[in-house]
Amino acid sequence: QVQLAESGGGLVQAGGSLRLSCAASERTFRNYAVGWFRQGPGKEREFVAAIDWNGVSTYYADSVKGRFTISRDNVKNTIYLQMNSLKPEDTAVYYCAAKWGRGSSAVATIPLSDLDYWGQGTQVTVSS
Predict the structure, then answer these.
(1) Which residues does 41 contact at the CB level (< 8 Å), separation at least 6?
(2) 80 CB-near residues (< 8 Å, 6+ apart)
(3) What is the pLDDT of residue 72?
(4) Greater pLDDT, 27 or 75
(5) Cβ atoms 48, 121 nearer than 8 A
């Protein structure tokens, strides 16, 4: 059982930056592809970014390309999401989720219920 814990959310002005972290409880986390997802007020949860198990392949939603960067440190069992040029529409609860045995593009497209583990989320609020 892998437990995921997000951190780094907060309140930021439009144009600002935040870095989210997703820390895993188990070393086996390094064998999982991981994605970031978000759920804004009154919206469905949506894909944001994903990275494969070794950090070589990444995948982004069109809405965040060029602004967000996903990375991982398998020594620290942690995934990061660097968010720059934030917009009010980026306001959401951000979740990380892990999937064993699949790549980053699969994490982006498979049903949310097929992901193996989820964190509890961290709130990001971008003011205009």
Answers:
(1) 91, 92
(2) 19, 20, 21, 22, 70, 71, 72, 73
(3) 96
(4) 75
(5) no
Torsion region of 53: left, alpha or beta (phi above 0 gives left; psi -120 to 50 gives alpha): alpha
Residue matched to tokens 């780094």: 8
Distance CA 21, CA 19 (A): 7
Task: Dump pLDDT digits (tens) for 76-87.
Answer: 999 999 999 999
pLDDT for res 1: 85
Which whole-number Å values give the CA distances from 21 to 18, 69, 83, 114, in the listed order?
10, 12, 11, 22
Cα distance between residue 75 and residue 67, in whole Å: 26
Q: Which residues 6+ apart lie within 8 Å of 88 measured at CB? A: 14, 126, 127, 128
